[in-house]
Write a structure and sequence with these properties.
Number of strands: 32
CATH superfamily of the largest domain: Immunoglobulins
CATH architecture of the largest domain: Sandwich
Largest sheet: 6 strands, mixed
Helix content: under 10%
Distance between the termini: 119 Å
CATH topology of the largest domain: Immunoglobulin-like
Shape: rod-shaped
CATH class of the largest domain: Mainly Beta
Radius of gyration: 39 Å
Length: 365
C-alpha cells in the first residue's frame, strides 16, 4: 500500500488524505479520501463537533450499508474511545453522537464534556459488516481543550474613518459546540446587531454591528464579548477583544475665553484664547475685529492680547482653520473708561475711581 497526502493552502486548516490500495495484480484500483480539520480547539467542559467526510473508490460503494459504523481512535496506539453503534450511557469512553450519515459519506461526530483527556491525536475508522473495514491511516488531528476560550476576532481590526461614514464591524468567535454556541455582546451598544452561525469546517458565530461614525465616537473603545455556557453545570466562561475608534472630523464647539474674566478696565491687558475640538487637532487660528459687515484681520495664533483702549470695545472673532473645515466663534468686549473724582470730607480729601458704567473700586488719594 502506498499513500500520498495533499494539503490545502497554508492559510487553511484542512487536510485531505488520499490512500491508494494496490490490487494483487499490481494495478491501481481504489482511491480513498477523507476530509477533516488538522486541529480543533475546544473549551474544556463543553462539547465539540468534528466535521468529517470521506470518499470510497469503485467497488466499495455497494458495501456502504446501514450496517456501517464510525469509530474514533485516540493516540498513536489507536485506542477505541467512541463507537457509533454503542448508544448506551457509559459504553463509550467518550460520550457523543455521530450526526453524519455514513451512507452519504458523512462522518461528522459530536463528542461531549471535553477534558484534558482529549489532548491527543484522533483518527477515524469505518467499519461495516462486510468487506468494508477501513482505517484512515495518518489522518490524525489534534484536540486542544482549553480552560479559557480564545478571544473573538474583530474585522476590520482597526477603524479609522471620516465623520459621517458608515462603519460595519464583524465579531467572530469559535463555536465548537453546536448545542452551546457563544453569545456575542457589543459594548457600547451603538445600534442593533445581527448574529449568524456559519456552518463551516471551523464553526464560527458572527455578529455584525453597523453605525454611522460621529465625532463622539472618536477615541471610544468598542468591545465584543463572547460568553460560553458549558455542559454538566460548569460555570460560564467569557473572552473579550476590543478596538479603539478613530474618527476624523472638522472643528466643533469653537469658543473664545477672556482672561481676566469680568469687567475690562481701560489700560489693563486682556487675553483672548480660542479653543476648538477637532481631529486632527486645530493648529491654525485667525483673529478678526468685526466692524459692522467688515472683518479686519488682527493676527493668528491660539491667543490674542489687547492693550484695552476704550476704542477697542467691540466684537472679536476667532476662526479655527482645519483641512476638513473651519468654524468661528465671537465675543463682545466692553472696555470701561475710568474717571477720577475727588471729594472733600471733614477730615481728609478722598478720591474715588469711578467707571463710566459702574463703580469699580474706591481708593485713598
Amino acid at each position: 500500500m502506498s499513500t500520498s497526502i495533499a494539503t490545502s493552502p497554508q492559510n487553511t486548516s484542512q487536510i485531505i488524505l488520499h490512500i491508494f490500495v494496490v490490487c494483487i495484480s499490481g494495478v491501481l484500483c481504489l482511491d480513498f479520501a477523507a476530509l477533516m480539520p488538522q486541529n480543533i480547539e475546544a473549551l474544556s467542559g463543553s462539547c465539540v463537533a468534528i466535521p468529517c467526510s470521506f470518499t470510497l473508490g469503485t467497488g466499495y460503494e455497494s458495501s456502504l450499508t446501514a450496517s456501517c459504523k464510525g469509530i474514533w481512535r485516540k493516540g498513536w496506539r489507536r485506542v477505541h474511545v467512541f463507537d457509533s453503534s454503542l448508544t448506551g450511557t457509559g459504553l463509550n469512553t467518550i460520550q457523543g453522537n455521530l450526526t453524519g450519515n455514513l451512507q452519504q459519506k458523512e462522518c461528522t461526530t459530536i463528542l461531549n464534556d471535553f477534558t484534558s483527556y482529549f489532548n491527543d491525536y484522533f483518527c477515524f475508522r469505518l467499519e461495516c459488516d462486510n468487506a468494508l473495514k477501513y482505517n484512515f491511516p495518518g489522518l490524525f488531528f489534534f484536540f486542544t481543550p482549553s480552560e479559557y476560550p480564545s478571544k473573538p476576532t474583530l474585522s476590520p481590526a482597526t477603524v479609522d474613518v471620516m465623520e459621517g461614514a458608515s462603519v460595519s464591524l464583524i465579531c467572530s468567535a469559535a463555536a465548537p459546540c453546536p448545542s452551546l454556541p457563544p453569545t456575542l455582546t457589543w459594548t457600547p451598544t451603538l445600534s442593533d446587531s445581527v448574529e449568524d452561525l456559519q456552518e463551516t469546517p471551523n464553526r464560527v458565530i458572527t455578529s455584525l454591528l453597523n453605525f454611522t461614525a460621529s465625532h463622539v465616537h472618536h477615541g471610544e473603545k468598542i468591545s465584543c464579548t463572547a460568553l460560553y455556557k458549558r455542559q454538566a453545570g460548569k460555570s460560564d466562561k467569557s473572552s473579550k477583544t476590543y478596538l479603539t475608534v478613530t474618527v476624523l472630523y472638522p472643528p466643533k464647539n469653537t469658543s473664545v475665553s477672556v482672561s481676566p474674566s469680568g469687567s475690562v478696565v481701560e489700560g489693563s491687558s486682556v487675553t483672548l484664547t480660542c479653543s476648538s475640538n477637532a481631529n486632527p487637532a486645530v493648529k491654525n487660528y485667525t483673529w478678526y475685529r468685526v466692524n459692522g459687515t467688515e472683518a479686519v484681520t488682527l493676527g493668528s495664533g491660539e491667543s490674542f492680547t489687547l492693550d484695552s483702549k476704550a476704542s477697542d470695545s467691540g466684537e472679536y472673532c476667532c476662526e479655527a482653520l482645519h483641512a476638513l473645515g473651519a468654524e468661528k466663534a465671537t465675543v463682545l468686549i466692553l472696555i470701561h473708561n475710568l474717571i477720577v473724582k475727588c471729594y472733600q470730607d471733614a477730615v481728609l480729601p478722598r478720591c474715588y475711581k469711578q467707571s463710566i458704567y459702574n463703580w469699580l473700586n474706591m481708593t485713598l488719594c
